[in-house]
Each structure stands twice: as C-alpha cells, then as structure tokens.
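User: Structure with nickel (II) ion, tokens only please.
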Amino acid sequence: MAKLEILEYPDDRLRTKAAPVVAVDDEVRTLVDDMLETMYAAPGVGLAAPQIGVMKRIFVMDVADKEAPPEPVAMIDPQVVWASEETSTYEEGCLSIPEIYEEITRPARVRVKFLDRDGAEREAEFDGLGATCAQHEIDHLDGKLFIDYLGSVKRSLITQKMKKLKRERAKETD
Ligand code: NI
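Assistant:
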C-alpha cells in the first residue's frame, strides 16, 4: 500500500467532475486500499479520489468511533437514490481545505447505490455522521466542496486564506 498526496484547495482538479469506473479491477482495488491508508494517516473520516488527483468516481470513509474497531467503507460509482426531507447540521471539514470547519445542513438520511470493492452492486442507508460524510464525498466526485454551501462572502474569505496558506507552504519548501 502507498500513502498518497492530498490536493489542497484551490486546485482545478477539485473542481472537475470525475468519470464513472464501471469495471472494478485490481487497479481499482489497489487505489481503494491506498486511499484508505491515506485517509487513516491524515487522519480523516472520508477521502474521495479527486482529492488525490485521480478523476474517478470512488470514495472511502470510516465514521466509526475512535475507540471502536475500524469500519472501512469503499464506494465506487455511488449514487444517492433517496434523501430524507429531514435535515441535520454538522460541523464539516475537509482534508483538502485544512483548518476550516463550518456548520453545513444536509439531508439527515440518504440511501446510496454503489459498487463495492468486488464490483458487486449494493445499496446502503446512512444516518448521522455517515449520511453527512457520504454526501460530502459524493459532492467531491462532482467537483463540489462543502464551502459551496456557504455564502459567497464567507467562501471568498476562505479561498483567500487558503491561497495564502498554499503560498506560505510553497515558500517553506523552496
Ligand atoms: Ni472533503
């Protein structure tokens, strides 16, 4: 397995719609394993393929309690097939937008159709943090970020802050 570099906002690849996978082969399985390793090392609870520059519709997540055994989930070509009218609000963050946390309101429960690691078609329902995380990750596959749910003033402040952060980091590595 290999730890991969996580892209940071702003980056055009984070704004690009990812392509369907269709065939789940060994290459996809290796990618899933690398993504899980990268997510756990970060540490984070979710990671989508565009965040590591791979424009494929794949994400991984694990929303199990820290003290509980890991519950890795990998979804390939995921599609929300149902969302509740009821909403819930969570403070969200993103490995591609470090140090920014904002409260975002989304449907409280969703049902997702996807292919698993073996290429089998499956459906699963999520609530709580799982529902928020799955929707956040599926958004990544469409080039959408959680800051898009904020007002434009707040979003542009975050964009400025992130550009500055990236400039400073680039200087450090010079
Ligand atoms: Ni994210």
